[in-house]
Amino acid sequence: MKLDSEVLIIGGGPAGLGAALSLGRMSRTALVCDDNRPRNAPSSHLNNFPTRDGIHPAEWRRLVKKDLEKYKTISFFEGSVLSVEKSASGFTAKFSSGDRASFKKVVLAYGVEDRPLLLPGFKELWGKSIFHCPYCHGFEIRGSRIALISNSEMTFHMVSLINDLASDLILLTNGKAVFSEEQKELLNRRSIRLIEYPIVGFVHEGEQLKGISLASGQVVEREVAFFQPLLPFKLKSQIGEELGCEKTQFGFYKVNERGATTVDGVFACGDNVTMGHSVILAAASGSMAGAGIVSELLGEVFSRI
């Protein structure tokens, strides 16, 4: 397999595949590197994607790769990118296979790594009865008794979204709450119970949540829980930082409207650039980054003539 291409895409999820599609449409050569660690692997379906609402994530990726087969300039590498360094002609990457290859542009599309609660039952329920996104899973569980596990400046944004889904909502802060008295009073007016005891585990039958065990000895009966990711987000790779890409307070790469980072020739897209984490938004972000790269590549060639 020929590794050298114009563009190195690190990540084979929605963002990376979206970038590849834009590049393929303009006959640019790109290598998509996928180490097979999709963030939505625990989920049995993805939603809020026109024509594909409810499809299995693995099936969605298969269909996109099938679409990409007609673009002969797009190739795939199954493995990891270990490092990327600036070179005279662009970038040089080292792969888990031991190979090295050169590229003109780089796309960081590896997304974020969820940091679960290291408590009994959480891993078994993640993506099944414990979720992070109401747009992805809220419709299916509307009317349930729901717990929101959150304790940050973003908590009340999530509370407003989830409260409308729940027949009964409680807010678990897993320790002392950081909220103001005004925020606590708002919860009281909305009849949302605030519980500040630490969580010690999750009671479940198979993939179905039954209750949340607290350090007080109480077990709060719930059918569904939403867990708001810890901030700042942890990215799946440090390659962007090693290249010198600047990040935001939330842990995302700083990019312009076309996905260009603060390092020339390096683009980023998907979950590692925005708080809006969904398949359709990641794919759109990747498509825009691909278009930004096409513009740069063809502009550079055109200006040399």
Automatic annotation (TrEMBL):
Gene3D superfamilies: FAD/NAD(P)-binding domain (3.50.50.60). The keyword Oxidoreductase applies. Keywords: Flavoprotein, Oxidoreductase. This is NAD(P)/FAD-dependent oxidoreductase. Residues 6-275 form the FAD/NAD(P)-binding domain. Pfam families: Pyr_redox_2. The keyword Flavoprotein applies.
